[in-house]
Design a protein that fits this description.
Blueprint (H helix, E strand, L loop, with lengths): L1 H14 L6 H30 L7 H61 L4 H35 L20 H5 L10 E3 L2 H11 L16 H11 L2 H9 L1 E4 L4 E7 L5 E6 L1 E3 L6 E3 L2 E3 L2 H12 L10 H9 L4 E4 L3 E2 L5 E2 L6 H13 L3 E4 L10 E6 L13 E5 L5 E7 L3 E5 L22 E5 H7 L2 E4 L7
Antiparallel strand pairs: 1-5, 2-3, 3-4, 6-7, 8-17, 9-10, 11-14, 11-17, 12-13, 12-16, 14-15, 15-16
Helix pairs in contact: 1-3, 2-3, 3-4, 7-8, 7-10
Length: 472
């Protein structure tokens, strides 16, 4: 026994220790996250105070608003720094814990090897070789920790927060590249590149999920999922629909991910963990001078994972509605009638009852999506229509009439219907022009377009209708 203790002591001397406390580092990270939450509440109070006095005018009012915006910006920067720093600390704590565990395993192996060598009467040179190899392995483990510590320190300096070890016994720094940076630009399935959420993304998305911020309309990128984005856009166009989307996504502090609730074919909930978004998918919100992901981006990524991470193109809006809500959705189609010699002829007409069903659904705030697959494009795709060329969020008499192209094999959300017209929104966030009409470059039309009911019947062979959000 005394020989065993002696050998264990020798093994410990050969292997050495990795100083520091992973728990202590995690405690610091938790305190930074708690600080970020406090600052987030303060930022929300600043915004609320500014919005609470909309009628206040004058020099003092403008000075107050300017000051509050500056304070809000400073708070946001501090929040992002704390969240980024906490993430780097957590990553370093994992490196530290892994290294300490690895040294424990190495110590046990070295002790056993030395004991076996002594019992077998091995030559001293063999014992020395074991000790030399063990010492080399231990040096490699401690070097990884040192490198991680230096990188963590550099990362904390970059985000504007400092640390001198956080109980680790060495300088705390980055764990190397963060999880977010590690995944950028990588292709891991057929939908293409993913980008991990940044701390700023997470803050904004959490505000959208809990009702403190809105999000821009869908803006389709290079993924052919118009049916899904038109569906999400249809939900987003009403207060009940927005709340429905908010109610089905939450932030998990434990998982550091958004948890989106979707539904299987039996109507049972499926929880999808989302930590990144499609780089070339929905274009998100315009924030300052760049596009950033929004809640629609979160749902787009969740749906891609729900489908098994295969290509999103080729879906149906009514199926997406059921997957999003767990409730029935159905399709209304133009049917046609028997023609010459009994051949079936598609007449591209909705019956009066079908029109009423579509109108009632739009009026009630149901998600409604029109699709142009199997539409009548025999004589082209150009229509005389009105688009939101003055960027006031609606199509009205102030907009100039032009010649636009209806996209074949595409899906549009149905915004409004009256006795003569159907107003749609193209998830491309634009409507291509034809016939020589081109809106001025400074105009933004956001994809809204108003066409006649006759043109809708001609080009939109089917209309998908979901249930009213919020009603059982």
């Amino acid at each position: 026994m005394s020989m065993g203790l002696s050998l264990d002591a020798v093994a410990g001397g050969v292997v050495g220790e990795v100083p520091g406390s992973p728990g202590g580092v995690l405690a610091v990270a938790d305190s930074w996250r708690a600080g970020a939450r406090v600052l987030d509440e303060a930022a929300s109070s600043v915004v609320s105070s500014r919005l609470a006095v909309p009628s206040w005018q004058g020099i003092s009012a403008e000075a107050f608003r300017s000051s509050s915006r500056g304070l809000e910006g400073d708070l946001d920067a501090s929040i992002m720094g704390l969240l980024d720093g906490a993430r780097h600390l957590e990553a370093y704590a994992q490196v530290l814990a892994d290294a300490q565990e690895a040294l424990e395993r190495l110590r046990a192996l070295v002790g056993a090897a030395l004991l076996e060598a002594v019992d077998a009467g091995a030559p001293a040179v063999l014992v020395a070789g074991v000790r030399y190899a063990a010492a080399g392995a231990a040096v490699g483990i401690r070097a990884r920790v040192s490198i991680a510590a230096m990188r963590t320190a550099a990362a904390l300096n970059a985000v504007g927060v400092g640390g001198d070890g956080a109980g680790s016994g060495v300088g705390v720094g980055a764990s190397g590249d963060s999880v977010a940076d590690d995944s950028k630009g990588k292709v891991d399935d057929h939908t293409g590149a993913k980008t991990a959420f940044s701390a700023e993304d997470i803050r904004r998305l959490r505000q959208q999920a809990d009702g403190r911020a809105d999000w821009d309309s869908a803006h389709q990128g290079d993924i052919g999922d118009c049916y899904l984005l038109a569906t999400l856009d249809a939900y987003s166009r009403t207060e009940d629909g927005e709340q429905f989307l908010r109610d089905h996504v939450r932030w998990s502090e434990k998982d550091q991910a958004f948890i989106v609730t979707l539904y299987d074919d039996d109507g049972k909930p499926v929880y999808v963990k989302v930590t990144d978004y499609y780089t070339d998918g929905n274009q998100g919100d315009q924030v300052r001078d760049r596009q950033m992901p929004n809640l629609i981006s979160v749902y787009e990524r969740a749906y891609g994972q729900y489908l098994g991470d295969h290509d999103l193109p080729g879906g149906k809006a009514n199926e997406a509605m059921e997957d999003l809500s767990g409730r029935d959705a159905h399709r209304v189609e133009t049917k046609g009638a028997p023609g010459f010699l009994g051949w079936w002829r598609e007449d591209h007409k909705y019956t009066d009852s079908e029109w009423k069903e579509i109108e009632d659904a739009v009026e009630a705030g149901c998600p409604v999506v029109g699709g142009t697959s199997d539409g009548d494009f025999d004589d082209g795709s150009s229509v005389e229509a009105w688009a939101d060329t003055d960027d006031n969020g609606r199509v009205d008499d102030s907009d100039e009439k032009g010649v636009y192209t209806i996209a074949e094999g595409h899906a549009y959300s149905v915004v409004a219907i009256d006795d003569k017209y159907v107003t749609l929104r193209n998830p491309w966030a634009r409507n291509d022009t034809s016939g020589g009409y081109v809106p001025p470059e400074e105009d933004e039309e956001d994809g809204l377009i108003r066409i006649t009911r006759e043109d809708y019947e001609k080009y939109f062979q089917h209309t998908d209708i979901g249930e009213i959000p919020g009603e059982s």
